[in-house]
């Protein structure tokens, strides 16, 4: 019971909660920004990769293939370091923007593979039917294939977004103040056992974020399934 009382006391400690709230807002900003960037970038990369072979698309397709291979084949921590200390090693460049770009670029590579798999899972007959009706390739893809593909990939993309939120806990490696760093600061200067309380509180914050996102994904899936029955 003493353990839970200590957790409750931390929640009621205004000084500590200000530290945690500051880290929480940073985590949310990075996560939301990276989600949007990852979804947009992943969709574009998937569409380029699945585009019809032509001379004009050779270079873009090659770039996208290299991008996905490199990003998926290297650690997120290494990518974050390169973004912070090489690519965006510019004086006064916002760290939070660096983190959003780093995590967004990383997420985009995984999202692109999910979307690509979703598009390929749609029966080829759907595309042929659209073309038979006189629709262009772009119109068929946009109005027939992609809507069906989205329904197939929502669970996979949801898992990627959840993983993204948890991965943001490494931003303290480049000196940023997030939820995990907040717990370290609160527990610093005390014995190792004292770290358990703030780490547990921070874990509850992460759990709440992930649970909320999971709930939103389930609601979207439920509505999409309902639309299929109409």
Features:
230 residues; mainly alpha; MetI-like fold; 0% strand; flat
Describe the protein's architecture and organization:
The protein is built from nine helices and no strands. It has 230 residues and is mostly helical. It is flat, with a radius of gyration of 22 Å. 26% of the residues are buried. It has one domain (2-228): MetI-like (MetI-like fold, Orthogonal Bundle), CATH 1.10.3720. Helix content is 80%, strand content 0%. It has helices at residues 2-11, 14-50, 58-73, 76-87, 95-121, 124-132, 137-167, 179-187, 196-228.
CATH architecture name = Orthogonal Bundle
In terms of structural class, how would the helical and strand content be classed? mainly alpha
CATH class: Mainly Alpha
- Major pleated sheet: none
Q: Pick out the low-confidence regions.
A: none
Please write the string of helix (H) and strand (E) elements: HHHHHHHHH
Put simply, the count of helices is 9
Query: In CATH terms, what is the fold-level topology?
Result: MetI-like fold
Give a count of the beta strands, DSSP E runs of length 2 or more.
0
Quote the distance from N terminus to C terminus.
52 Å
Shape: flat
Considering the protein shown, what is the CATH homologous superfamily? MetI-like
Q: What percent of residues are in strands?
A: under 5%
> Roughly how much helix do the residues carry, as a percent range?
over 70%
Number of domains: 1
What is the average per-residue confidence, as pLDDT, rounded to a whole number?
A: 84
